[in-house]
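#dry-run=false #mode=assembly
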Amino acid sequence: MKFSPLLDELIRELQVLPGIGPKSAQRMAFFLLERERPRGQRLAKVLDRAMSEIGHCQHCRTFTEQDLCEICANPKRAAVRQLCVVETPADLAALEQTHLYSGRYFVLMGHLSPLDGIGPAELGLDRLAQRLDEEQLEELILATNPTIEGEATAFYIANLARERGVKVTRIAHGVPVGGELELVDGTTLSHSLSGRRPLE
Amino acid sequence: MKFSPLLDELIRELQVLPGIGPKSAQRMAFFLLERERPRGQRLAKVLDRAMSEIGHCQHCRTFTEQDLCEICANPKRAAVRQLCVVETPADLAALEQTHLYSGRYFVLMGHLSPLDGIGPAELGLDRLAQRLDEEQLEELILATNPTIEGEATAFYIANLARERGVKVTRIAHGVPVGGELELVDGTTLSHSLSGRRPLE
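#status=ok
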């Protein structure tokens, strides 16, 4: 034990945060105690509330403390007959920031990973199939990550959609804008070549 | 607003932590919500308690939720007639880890910095002077940082001690063990030369 019991406990518990080791946790504890006690207490209260109140949107599974998230509750979004499948709420937020998509989402909260016990049920794919049955979708956009698991998940979901006669698309993979061909890996470059489009 | 109001608030409040920007805060929030809710709630509770309960040791001013810290409450420590002055509780912890010092401490919780309104009163130097008067000290060890402010603070405290006839020492500055002479700055090298000691 290096400090008082309560301070030791605070430093230990701060290490639950990703990327925070003993030294950073100690620095955080001292910083809050020395200078930001009111904000530290506000953080404690919000953290407590968030951990108990934030659940999942009943419609798209993203994080929200309400029954439906803002996007699912918005009738303008429902009018667009597109559904975009993403792995995480962070991916949803990244797509929202492009301001190019105005339909709704389905958040898997992960990807298929049988070794970790994550199958179709854990990703709510029964709920997704139900939505495919009920909603008259014109397009299902698969925006899972371009990783092996993300591709496998996209493949699985594409089959669900095809069985129901829904058009499926996959987001484009290729050379990132601002990147240099020389530095891009071979797989990405192959994707960018096979996915080439006519210049109009 | 990118997420639900409560989630947005959590991400905003996490940014009070030093070194945590919007991206890291988002990552922390998702990590806790997805995988560590019970530990997140434990962190919230400890943080709340720490912010309200942790005060300062009445004797040495370090952080503690008790009246006296463990070191000040230990009679073995009081028997050693040495007092070591450090700037922060983290400095105290670093010295404790050497296991070479068995006396007590005085924690300034900062250093003299008139431009920031930090004078002798803010560092509790009246309390330190009182201790110098009351305790029959054989040595006052100044372990403030080797910065301009730390040196000025050490100089000021040295005068307090000399007025009271207490022997004052300063921790050695020099080439760090494992360092290379070539890479050490000139001031440190001057210190290490002027502080040279006879080989026994």
